DNA sequence: ATAGGGTTAG
């Protein structure tokens, strides 16, 4: 080094040169020399050295030096605050600002933009508002820089009224001020206001720049305001903004969000420069629009061409594609790839992975991954809770929900959209009530999606009138609300109410969708409304241009079959424009059982076996048909055939919620704490029932045992256990609600009627299909189920 | 400029 080190001015010159060239190694060298050769730290050298570290983005080193400087200048304070405001941590900037005040250093107009940027980064509204009052006191509020920073702060924090007030108060508004206001509107979804502001600024002679456009494009996309989007695109072309990668990506994303994937792709293809954001936006656009093939192809291209490295955003989009395709093996490969890349497994990507596992049906892997996630947030909990419900484990979902409450993470709206279906599944009314209360407290109870889930919850928990109350009080219903309410009436056997609601829907000029008709037809079938079913099935395609799907046909076969038009149902199946599947044959088989049509039952059963009988339900149906006809050998053969198929019988399980605790019973289960009381109660009931004329339906028992033993087996069916438990634990006269995973057994159906007479209680059983409301010795299903 | 969890259907 040619300079005579140790001389202060030489250091200063050298440092200034380094600041220009941003050379960190030089900086460190000089710093070392300086430490060695000077005993007393000179403030101006320390100032320059700090600035040098800042210019090299060495915030930690700069801070260490800064803290040694006895009286740093305002400029240096501003620079170090600026460094924290740009690179974080944001609270570092705010802390520095406060210590500056504390030391009696007066902030200037350059201080405020930096510290306010930190406040908006943290959404630290209270700090920002206080800092605003300081700026006022120092007479800086009317400064263009400061005021623009304040507008930006309030806009980013969503306090648009205050942003607007300050913005209006400004005498000179440059393009930056306008952009702050516009970006604020954009951030909070006020697309029209943002576009309006762009017009207004031009009227005032301020020309929108590329930041203006970039700031407004996200909200245009979100609002799917394609017209605005095209106008903005035109403006970009005229001003040649569209060559830039940021504007190009913004436009691409806007078109993708407006479902104009061809336009988006066109822009992507002609972009001169593409970065990882452009690729991610394009891939994400495909995934959101259900174009998985294109998304995966583009991702492969990105990897093969080695164009840019995949980011967590890219990987997240591809994982979502795997989830939608339930392509588990690709999902697992990606997981490995992410680990191998050493890519940041941030919480967003972790949640996407978790959800991918849940949606691909490997809930155990999802739970394992969830357990190991650290930290977890409300999204992680929501994902695993709804994952459990989707995979048929509502009890686990509620137990994780309890853990969530203990963990101190507040459930949000989406969490509750997973919790409510869990309550529905379990018919856990107490949990449902609590959830509803929580939703009211949090102000979520008016949300349409939440109300839809509440309607479903109340109707599946047996409280159809509460469901209707929620429906009535909604201020914005969508088609899902109507569908949920219609099927709610349906499963309660209230077919006329379902039809009435459907007519209300039409009278309001709303358009039913394909699911509305499934709900409606299913309601008709539960209530034996054959004529109405036929009418609306035909009207569906003729008047509403909805092509019947298999699901609609299943409902139709159900309607015809239950009502005794078994041959017509068979004819209906043969005339369908597509190949019948197992589910529709099962519906017919069920009709054969009700109407004891053995011949057709056998034929249908053969069809089912040739297709591969997905579930044991069909074997049970056929063997029921045989046993009802006294053909025990044939019934036995069916059970053997079932074993040959390797199908195990799903155990019947019933449960009842008492004081918020769900008690589950499996047929013949002898493990419950109150077992002896339950048994005594059942024996007691049996005596009374027999006195009233009950005879055990022994044809439902397939074991080769004595009649008396059959009676005992039937007595310990899960639904009877749960009811006895309810009688023991609920006050006299209180109604009982029991839920069963399969269809209620015929013997139990008969027995429960007697029980309502003996106990003078209403007993409701929700089975896999519908509600059975037992009262005074009858069931509202009319014995057809 | 890109990103995670979600309601209805036998």
TrEMBL record:
Name the UniProt record assigns to this protein: DYW domain-containing protein
Keywords on record: Repeat
Protein origin, superkingdom: Eukaryota
Organism of provenance: Vitis rotundifolia (Muscadine grape)
Alphabetized InterPro entries for the sequence: DYW_dom (IPR032867), E_motif (IPR046848), PPR_At4g14850-like_plant (IPR046960), PPR_rpt (IPR002885), TPR-like_helical_dom_sf (IPR011990)
Start-end of each PPR repeat: 73-107, 174-208, 275-310, 377-411, 447-481
Entry's Gene Ontology molecular function annotations: RNA binding; zinc ion binding
Record-level GO BP terms: RNA modification
């Amino acid at each position: 080094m040619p300079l005579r080190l140790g001389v202060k001015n030489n250091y200063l010159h050298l440092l200034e040169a380094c600041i220009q060239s941003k050379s960190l190694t030089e900086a460190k060298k000089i710093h070392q020399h300086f430490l060695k050769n000077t005993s007393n730290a000179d403030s101006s050298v320390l100032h320059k050295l700090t600035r040098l570290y800042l210019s090299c983005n060495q915030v930690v080193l700069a801070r260490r030096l800064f803290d040694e400087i006895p009286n740093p200048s305002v400029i240096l304070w501003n620079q170090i605050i600026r460094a924290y405001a740009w690179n974080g941590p944001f609270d570092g900037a705010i802390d520095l600002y406060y210590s500056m005040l504390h030391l009696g250093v007066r902030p200037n107009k350059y201080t405020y933009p930096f510290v306010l940027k930190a406040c908006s980064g943290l959404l630290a509204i209270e700090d920002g508002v206080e800092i605003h009052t300081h700026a006022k006191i120092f007479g800086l509020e009317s400064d263009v820089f400061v005021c623009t920073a304040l507008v930006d702060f309030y806009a980013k924090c969503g306090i648009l009224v205050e942003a607007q007030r300050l913005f209006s108060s400004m005498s000179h508004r440059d393009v930056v001020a306008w952009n702050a206001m516009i970006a604020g509107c954009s951030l909070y979804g006020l697309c029209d206001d943002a576009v309006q502001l762009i017009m207004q600024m031009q009227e005032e002679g301020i020309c929108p720049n590329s930041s203006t456009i970039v700031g407004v494009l996200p909200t245009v996309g979100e609002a799917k305001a394609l017209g605005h989007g095209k106008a903005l695109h035109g403006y970009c072309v005229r001003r040649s903004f569209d060559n830039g990668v940021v504007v190009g990506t913004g436009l691409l994303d806007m078109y993708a969000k407006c479902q104009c994937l061809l336009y988006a792709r066109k822009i992507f293809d002609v972009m001169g420069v593409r970065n990882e954001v452009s690729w991610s936006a394009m891939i994400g656009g495909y995934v959101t629009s259900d174009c998985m093939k294109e998304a995966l192809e583009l991702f492969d291209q990105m990897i093969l061409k080695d164009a840019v490295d995949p980011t967590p955003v890219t990987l997240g989009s591809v994982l979502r594609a795997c989830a939608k395709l339930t392509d588990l093996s690709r999902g697992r490969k990606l997981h490995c790839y992410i680990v191998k890349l050493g890519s940041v497994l941030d919480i967003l990507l972790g949640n996407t992975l978790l959800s991918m596992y849940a949606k691909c049906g490997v809930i155990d892997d999802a739970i394992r991954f969830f357990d190991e996630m650290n930290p977890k947030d409300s999204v992680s909990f929501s994902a695993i809770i709804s994952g459990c419900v989707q995979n048929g484990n509502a009890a686990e979902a509620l137990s994780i929900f309890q853990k969530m409450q203990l963990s101190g993470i507040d459930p949000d709206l989406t969490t509750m959209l997973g919790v409510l279906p869990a309550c529905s599944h379990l018919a856990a009314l107490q949990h449902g009530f609590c959830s509803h209360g929580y939703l009211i407290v949090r102000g979520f109870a008016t949300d349409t999606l939440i109300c839809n889930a509440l309607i479903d919850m109340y109707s599946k928990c047996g409280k159809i009138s509460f469901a209707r109350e929620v429906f009535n009080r909604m201020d914005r219903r969508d088609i899902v609300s109507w569908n949920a309410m219609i099927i709610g009436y349906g499963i309660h056997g209230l077919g006329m109410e379902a039809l009435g609601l459907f007519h209300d829907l039409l009278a309001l000029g709303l358009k039913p969708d394909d699911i509305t008709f499934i709900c409606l037809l299913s309601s008709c079938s539960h209530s034996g409304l054959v004529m109405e079913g036929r009418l609306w099935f035909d009207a569906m395609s003729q008047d509403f241009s909805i092509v019947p799907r298999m699901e609609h046909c299943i409902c139709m076969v159900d309607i015809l079959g239950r009502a005794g038009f078994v041959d017509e149902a068979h004819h209906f199946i043969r005339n369908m424009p597509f190949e019948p599947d197992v589910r529709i044959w099962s519906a017919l088989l069920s009709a054969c059982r009700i109407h004891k049509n053995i011949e057709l039952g056998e034929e249908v059963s053969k069809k089912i076996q040739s297709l591969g009988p997905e579930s044991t339900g069909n074997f049970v149906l056929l063997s029921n048909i045989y046993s009802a006809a006294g053909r025990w050998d044939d019934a036995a053969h069916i059970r053997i055939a079932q074993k040959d198929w390797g199908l195990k019988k799903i155990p019947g399980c019933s449960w009842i919620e008492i004081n918020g605790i769900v008690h589950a019973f499996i047929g013949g289960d002898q493990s419950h704490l109150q077992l002896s009381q339950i048994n005594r109660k059942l024996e007691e009931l049996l005596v009374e029932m027999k006195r009233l004329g009950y005879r055990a339906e022994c044809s439902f028992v397939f074991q080769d045992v004595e009649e008396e033993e059959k009676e005992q087996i039937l007595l310990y069916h899960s639904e009877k256990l749960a009811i006895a438990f309810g009688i023991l634990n609920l006050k006299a006269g209180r109604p009982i609600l029991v839920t069963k995973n399969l269809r209620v057994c015929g013997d139990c159906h008969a027995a429960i009627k007697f029980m309502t007479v003996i106990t003078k209680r209403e007993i409701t059983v929700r089975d896999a299909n519908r509600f059975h409301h037992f009262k005074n010795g009858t069931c509202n299903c009319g014995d057809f189920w």
